[in-house]
Design a protein that fits this description.
This protein is of the alpha/beta class and 678 residues long. The chain has 21 helices and 20 strands. It has 3 domains: 118 residues, Chitobiase/beta-hexosaminidase domain 2-like (Chitobiase, domain 2, 2-Layer Sandwich), CATH 3.30.379; 334 residues, Alpha-Beta Barrel (TIM Barrel), CATH 3.20.20; 124 residues, Alpha-d-glucuronidase, C-terminal Domain (Alpha-Beta Complex), CATH 3.90.1330.10. The longest helix is centred in the last third of the chain and has 33 residues. It binds alpha-D-glucopyranuronic acid. Alpha-D-glucopyranuronic acid (GCU) binds next to loops.
Length: 678
C-alpha cells in the first residue's frame, strides 16, 4: 500500500502560496474554519518570509498588508455564509467574510489571484457560490468488491478512505483531499458507493465510527459528509419484515437511526440513494412511488437540517433488443416527471446530465426541465468511465459548460445552471454533484492531467459562467509553478494545446454524432461497436447497410423528443433542425444523409476519426518536446508520456474499428481515399 503522505500536491503546489506567504497578514475571527485559515497563513508565511501581525488588524498602521477578517457585525451573523468581499485600498488588501466558510473560500481566492491581489487599489468585489450544494460522490467500496474492485469505475487505484475492509488508520491524505476541495469550493462528500453492498450498508449503524472519523477530518475544510444508503436498510440492518416507506415501523426506524447518526455527527449532510436501479432495492417492490421512497428518508433527516439526494437513474436493465418500443433514454422522465411537486423540500432529485449514462455526447436530460416544483441536482461524472478512463486526456469542462448553459425553454429561458442553483435563498436548488475521479494513486487521479477535471468541477459549481480555458489556466498556475517565476509559457501553451479541445477530440475518434455506447461491455474502455447492441442494457445504434441512428422522434420513433419543452421538442423531432452532433441520438438516417456541415454522415465518420486520432498523435509530439526543456517535473512528464502512448494506440484502434465497421456496412469508400481496413 502506498504511503499516505506520499502524494502529489495537485493544485496546492507550495509555490502557489508565494504571493500571500510573503505578506504581513492579520487574521481576525475565531472558530474551527478560521483556525484552518490561520494555519494556512502560518504555513505560507513561514515558507515565504511573511509574518502574522496579530489579531487586531489595524490596516497599514498596524503593519498588515493583508487582512483576513470574519465579519462579526451584529447585523451580519450568518455563520454558514460562504460569501466574501475583497477590496484593496491604500496598499492593503482586505478580505471580509460573511461567515467562516467564506473566510476559507476567500483565502483560496486570494491564492488564485496571486500577486494580482496585491496590485493596484480596487473597490470591493463580492463573491459567493452560485450553487449552495457542491458535492462529490465517491463510488468507493469499503471492502474490495468481486466485480467492481474497490472504487467502482475508479481509475486511480484504491480508495483514499478505505483499505483492507476498514477505514484507513492514517487519514493524512483525506485531510489533504479536504484541503484541495476547499480550494475549489466543494462543500459535501458522499463517502461510499451508490451501489450499497453488505459491509457498506453498515456504515449507517454499527460502523458509524468510521463516518464520524471522516466527518471530523473533513469538517475543518467546511465539508459535510453524506452517506449512500440502501433503501432496504430497515430490513437488512433493522431486521424489519419490510422496507415499505409508508409503514409506520419503517418510518420510525429511519427516524431513530438518523437521530443516532446526528447525535454523533451534528453536521451530517444526509443520504444519497440509488433505488430501483440496476438491481438496487427501492419503493417499487412495495407498489410505492419514488416520491414516497425519498420522503421517508427526507423526513428522517429534516429535523437535523439534512437532505436526501435521490437519484433519477431508474431504467429497465432487462430489455430485449427485439423490442423496439423500450427506450432507455425515456425512462427517467417517464418515472419522475409525473411526481413533480410530491417531493419534500429537503429531497433533491439528482439527475445525470444526459438521459442515458455519461456518454461523451448526449442531449441534456429533459428531466431537468420537467420538475419545476422539485429541487433538482445535476450529476456529472468526473471519473472518466466513458471518456477514456484516465488513460486518455479528456478535459471535461467544455462539456459541462454546454450542459450548464443549455436553455431547455429556448432563448430567454432559464439555463440548466439556474435550475440547479434554484430560485434564491428560500428556494435553493439541488446544486451540482459529481462522481469523483480520485484514488490512492500518487497523482490522485491516475492521469496527472485528469486533476484538471476535478478542479474544473468545483470551480463550475461555484461559478457556472467561468470559461473552461480560464479554469484550466488557473489550474495550471496553481499546479505547475516551480519557482518564483511561475509556470513557463511553453508548458502553459502546450497544456492548452493538448487539453482545451481534448473532449471534442475524444468525441471525434469514438462513437459518432451522439450515437453513444459503442464501448466494450462491462469495463467500458475502448471500441466495441456492437458491444451493447444485442444486450439487456439497451440498444444504441441500429446500424444496417443503409443507415444508422436511433429514431426517437414522435412521428416514427420512441417519442423521446416530446419529453423536451418547446422549442427543443420540435428541433429534435426534425431531422433537418436537429443539431449535427446529436443527429444519431434522435434519428435513423442514411449514410449519405447530408449534415448541416455539408458533409455526409459516412464521410463525417471517416473525417472525424482520422482527425481525432491525428490530434492525439500531435498531442503526444507536443508533450514529448517538453522533455528537452526544464519546465515540468520528470515524474509528471513520464506518467503523462506513458498515458499518451496508450491514448495514441487506443485512438487509432477506435479510428480503425469504427471506420472499418461502417465501410463494411455501407460499402461507401472514403472520399479522400485514406486507409480503411476492410
Ligand atoms: C453506470 C456505471 C455503474 C454505476 C451506474 C450509476 O451505469 O457503469 O457502474 O453504478 O452508472 O450511476 O449508478
Amino acid at each position: 500500500m502506498s504511503g499516505q503522505s506520499d502524494f502529489h500536491a495537485a493544485w496546492s503546489a507550495p509555490e502557489a502560496f508565494r504571493a500571500l506567504g510573503s505578506r504581513r497578514v492579520t487574521v481576525v475571527g475565531d472558530g474551527l474554519l478560521v483556525e484552518t485559515v490561520r494555519q494556512e497563513v502560518a504555513q505560507a508565511t513561514a515558507r515565504f518570509g511573511g509574518t502574522i501581525v496579530g489579531d487586531t488588524g489595524g490596516g497599514a498602521e498596524g503593519g498588515a498588508d493583508l487582512i483576513l477578517a470574519l465579519n462579526t457585525q451584529p447585523d451580519k451573523p450568518e455563520p454558514d455564509a460562504e460569501s466574501f468581499t475583497v477590496a484593496r485600498q491604500n496598499g492593503v488588501t482586505t478580505l471580509l467574510a460573511d461567515g467562516a466558510a467564506g473566510l476559507l473560500y476567500g483565502f483560496f481566492h486570494l491564492v488564485r489571484l496571486g500577486e494580482s491581489a496585491f496590485g493596484a487599489d480596487h473597490p470591493a468585489e463580492h463573491h459567493g457560490p452560485a450553487m449552495r450544494l457542491r458535492m462529490l460522490d465517491h463510488w468507493d467500496n469499503v471492502a474490495v468488491h468481486d466485480v467492481m474492485g474497490q472504487v467502482e469505475r475508479g481509475y486511480a487505484g484504491g480508495s483514499i478512505f478505505w483499505a483492507d475492509g476498514a477505514l484507513r488508520s492514517d487519514l493524512t491524505r483525506v485531510r489533504a483531499y479536504g484541503r484541495l476541495l476547499a480550494a475549489i469550493g466543494v462543500n459535501a462528500i458522499s463517502v461510499n458507493n451508490v451501489n450499497v453492498h453488505a459491509v457498506e450498508a453498515r456504515l449507517l449503524t454499527d460502523r458509524l465510527d468510521d463516518v464520524v472519523a471522516l466527518a471530523d477530518c473533513l469538517r475543518p475544510y467546511g465539508i459535510r459528509v453524506h452517506l449512500s444508503v440502501s433503501f432496504a436498510a430497515p430490513v437488512v440492518l433493522g431486521g424489519l419484515p419490510t422496507a415499505d416507506p409508508l409503514d409506520p415501523a419503517v418510518r420510525a426506524w429511519w427516524a431513530d437511526t438518523t437521530q443516532q447518526v446526528y447525535a454523533r455527527i451534528p453536521d451530517f449532510g444526509g443520504y444519497v440513494v440509488k433505488a430501483d436501479s440496476e438491481g438496487q432495492p427501492g419503493p417499487f417492490a412495495y407498489g410505492r412511488s419514488h416520491a414516497d421512497g425519498a420522503n421517508v428518508l427526507a423526513d428522517a433527516v429534516a429535523p437535523h437540517g439534512g437532505v436526501v439526494h435521490w437519484r433519477a437513474f431508474v431504467y429497465n436493465h432487462h430489455q430485449d433488443w427485439r423490442d423496439r418500443s423500450t427506450d432507455r433514454a425515456r425512462a427517467a422522465h417517464d418515472h419522475f416527471a409525473p411526481l413533480d411537486g410530491q417531493f419534500r423540500d429537503n429531497a433533491i432529485v439528482q439527475v445525470k446530465n444526459g438521459p442515458i449514462d455519461f456518454q461523451p455526447r448526449e442531449p441534456v436530460s429533459p428531466v431537468l426541465a420537467a420538475m419545476p416544483a422539485t429541487r433538482m441536482a445535476v450529476e456529472f461524472q468526473v471519473t472518466q468511465e466513458y471518456t477514456g478512463q484516465q488513460r486518455h486526456i479528456c478535459y471535461l469542462a467544455p462539456m459541462w459548460r454546454e450542459v450548464l448553459d443549455f436553455r431547455p425553454w429556448g432563448d430567454g429561458g432559464a439555463r440548466i445552471a439556474e435550475v440547479a442553483a434554484g430560485g434564491g435563498p428560500d428556494e435553493p436548488g439541488g446544486g451540482l454533484a459529481a462522481v469523483s475521479n480520485v484514488g490512492d494513486d500518487h497523482f490522485w487521479t491516475g492521469h496527472p492531467l485528469a486533476q484538471a477535471n476535478l478542479y474544473a468541477f468545483g470551480r463550475l459549481a461555484w461559478d457556472p459562467t467561468l470559461d473552461p480555458a480560464a479554469i484550466l489556466d488557473e489550474w495550471i498556475g496553481l499546479t505547475f509553478p516551480r519557482d518564483a517565476s511561475g509556470v513557463s509559457d511553453l508548458l502553459r501553451d502546450t497544456l492548452h494545446s493538448i487539453m482545451d479541445d481534448s473532449w471534442r477530440d475524444y468525441e471525434r475518434y469514438s462513437a459518432p454524432l451522439g450515437v453513444g455506447f459503442m464501448v466494450r461491455p462491462s469495463d467500458h474502455y475502448g471500441p466495441g461497436v456492437d458491444g451493447y447492441e444485442y444486450t439487456q442494457w439497451g440498444t444504441y445504434h441500429f446500424a444496417d447497410r443503409d443507415g444508422i441512428g436511433v429514431d426517437r422522434s414522435v412521428a416514427t420513433g420512441t417519442g423521446y423528443a416530446a419529453q423536451y419543452p418547446e422549442p427543443w421538442s420540435q428541433t429534435y423531432e426534425s431531422v433537418d433542425q436537429c443539431p449535427d452532433e446529436l443527429l444519431l441520438f434522435f434519428h435513423h438516417v442514411r449514410y449519405d444523409h447530408v449534415l448541416h456541415s455539408g458533409s455526409t454522415v459516412i464521410q463525417h465518420i471517416y473525417d472525424t476519426h482520422f482527425t481525432g486520432a491525428e490530434h492525439v498523435q500531435r498531442a503526444r509530439s507536443l508533450w514529448a518536446a517538453l522533455a528537452k526543456e526544464d519546465v515540468i517535473d520528470a515524474e509528471v512528464h513520464a506518467r503523462v508520456s506513458e498515458r499518451l502512448d496508450e491514448q495514441v494506440r487506443s485512438a487509432e484502434e477506435w479510428r480503425d474499428q469504427i471506420n472499418t465497421y461502417f465501410y463494411r456496412k455501407s460499402g461507401i469508400p472514403d472520399a479522400l481515399g485514406r486507409e480503411i481496413y476492410r
